[in-house]
Amino acid sequence: MADPAWRPSPRARALWAVNAALMWVPPVVAQVVWGVLDAGRPGLHVSVAVATVVLGGVHIAVVPLWRYRVHRWEISDTAVYTRSGWFTQERRIAPISRIQTVDTERGPIDRWLGLATVTVTTASSAGAVQITALDTATADATVARLTAIAGRDGADAT
């Protein structure tokens, strides 16, 4: 089977970069507090700060690009296909006949960037399938399409 064809929105890279940057705020704040409370070892503080800047910079710059290259999704008349991850990659296939609910989620950063995540809940022990970082219009159209396809079957997916 071929990989899913569609990428998330190009703004997904900005979303993932902002989320990565926010992860680095607590370590930076902790280092500032540590530097103020323990001013007797400036060499150690500088070394740790340089390591933080390098690691944080790589995380903020590389991970969003890598995730954008990996993340894919597609919907057919029979299934929802996703591929996600950046270090560990996961492929999920959810048959349309197993769909129970289709939800849209927009967090504050998502709304700021005009993005949304579509969550397809199925009768599966593996959990829901998520299609992340879609343009809002694409997410709305995807939900409408999935609802229409799932409604054609008329069977209960429980």
Automatic annotation (TrEMBL):
Record's signal peptide: none
Pfam family, one: bPH_2
Annotated transmembrane regions: 46-66
Residue ranges annotated for the YdbS-like PH domain, each copy included: 68-142
UniProt keyword list: Membrane, Transmembrane, Transmembrane helix
PANTHER family for the chain: TRANSMEMBRANE PROTEIN-RELATED, UPF0699 TRANSMEMBRANE PROTEIN YDBS
Name assigned to this protein: PH domain-containing protein
Organism the protein comes from: Rhodococcus chondri
Upper classification of the organism: Bacteria, Bacillati, Actinomycetota, Actinomycetes, Mycobacteriales
